[in-house]
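Archive transcription. Copying these from loose printouts into the bound notebook so they stop getting lost. Printout 1 of 2:
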Amino acid sequence: MFKLDDKFTEEDLSKVTEAVESNYSLRPNDALLLDVFTNNGERLVDPNLEMVSNPGQQQQLFKDNFQYIIQSDGMVTFPMIGDMKLAEMTLFEAEKAIAKKFDQIYKGSFIKLRITNRRVFVLGAPGGKVVPLPNEKTSLIEVLASSEGLDLGAKAQNIKVIRGESVYRINLSTISGMKETNMSVEPGDVIYVEPWRRPWLETLRDISPALSIVSSVLTLIVVVQNL
């Protein structure tokens, strides 16, 4: 999978340093959780029902309904302040813009915004895994550790991070390589860890059914001859 070819060569690989600098920008289909406080910290809006005593199972159902989805046009609708366009903003920029809106109603608004559907996809040697990203800055090492790490069947020197039209090659086989490629992942990244190929094992696996049949036939012949 994901081999280089004539249409995508070594020269097309992006430099990892280009990926470290940027902050994640909100995009359509992001699911948001909003916490609003007034007086620079006193809770004002409680979408997570943390102020409700003993809500039981209804708390989780009600909490799920208060995830705000960014629509295809970049707009999202919040209670009290209505529609806002948040696509292409960083979380910090979005929090400042929302706080400015709430300041028209309450003074000293403090906003905490979280993305709940951030995830990356790990393929190859560790198997197919979907790894959630709880933090805005999650390193590649954290993601690989969450997907059971790299065993002896993985090529640590040939890890590809595919991000949109950019592909980054990561080398974790040496300490210096790890330090040079200490990058943060972004939601939607595809991380491919190339497995080591063992042709003799693959050949043995392919011919094992035939060997089983031959073995069965030989066993039957021996039994018949001894009757």
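Printout 2 of 2:
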Amino acid sequence: MSKELRSWLFLVILALIWGSSFILMKKGMYDESGGQVFSDSQVGALRMAIAGLVMLPFGFMNLKKISNWKQVAYLTVVGTCGNFFPAFLFTFAETKLSSGLAGMLNSFTPFFTLILGFLFFQQRIRLKQVIGLMIAFVGICILVGILNDAPVEISLLHVSAILLATLMYGTSLNTIKYKLGEFKSLEIASLSFTFLAIPAWVVTFCLNTGSVLRTHEHASESLFFISVLSVFGTCIALLLFNQIIKLKSPMFASSVTYMIPIVAVILGVFLNHEAFHVSQFLGMLVIVGGVYLVNSK
């Protein structure tokens, strides 16, 4: 299989995983009746703590790969900006924003990736990239109904949380590509989580998560969904994400955020029997066209 085909295949798989993550976050926070089980902070902490525990053995095996403190600093940037803080920011945002709007705001990641690459990593900005980003963003607006007068709940604080998370994603993406080129995907993922494992478990216990596990009747069910989110939506997704960056570029990898709303709509149709409109199909076509334009040579 060619490198180009592998890149697109990994991108689609990653979109499927992260598209499902928005649903898993909700299921980690609330039971079937809509009652809260874990708080947004507890879900974020558990997600990072479990992922850190899963990746810890691999991290210890790869510690010998580190040769200087600069690499430690860059790996810490990837861990904190690419995973730790966004995990809390996204669960906080989902307490007030719909999954559709959260997915749309997540698509700002390519914008920040492009801008930060230009400002700090000497990457050129091509007009075609800017046009492609704008086209894809319009497609997302159509897909989630923003341009169809659909009612959307807006909270400036929660919107800002996602925008801050996407800024951090852009930072992590560029750091992986331009500062950690000597590391493999598994090495980056495992080492960055190794540095986060202890802080994540400390935060988990400080948030009194144990009392919820002991007393809430739906805690074990919610913990199951959070565990699935940690293993697939964090560990495996990060491995795929890092591999895409290695195969192509940060801009191509960040394009996954444009594909996530498509996955969310498709899952809504098949799992929740939601209606599918012609405008949503149009939005999907526009998104794919924009993503192709951004990444075409």
